[in-house]
Design brief:
CATH architecture: Roll
CATH topology: Thiol Ester Dehydrase, Chain A
Largest sheet: 5 strands, antiparallel
Number of helices: 4
Number of strands: 5
Strand content: 25-35%
CATH class: Alpha Beta
Shape: elongated
Helix content: 10-25%
Order of helices and strands: EHHEEEEHH
Number of domains: 1
Distance between the termini: 11 Å
Structural class: alpha+beta
Amino acid sequence: MSYFKPYRRKVYYYETDKMSIMHHSNYIRIFEETRVDFLEQAGMPFRLIEERGLLMPVLSVECSYKRPLRFGDEFEVTPVITKFTGTTLFVKYRVVNTATGELCAEGSSSHCFTDRDMRPVRTKRTYPEIYHLFADNVEEEG
């Protein structure tokens, strides 16, 4: 089990639509915020990864909506690294309303590691500290 805290914040007004619920497109942004937070907690912020010449482009992303979040609702997102091959990272997300405990959305994303010329990079050999950050935090799906 990961020792990282879930990412937590409130729904901002600009993220809502005419029905006062968070617009579906914002969940993808929240997944990215969650990854950024995870890396900061792990002591390896995106800035440091990119300074080492690595990029983490998104290969795929999906989201399934369960219950709406509304302006001012506090929520938390728990990321789980489900698989890491050394070149490709797979992450699942659970978005929960902290007041009600209701599952609001579930999603996943996949990412590859590339150099600045977009060529795949094998992190195990070239960036062992980055490799272990992800490999040591893979969790079994349950």
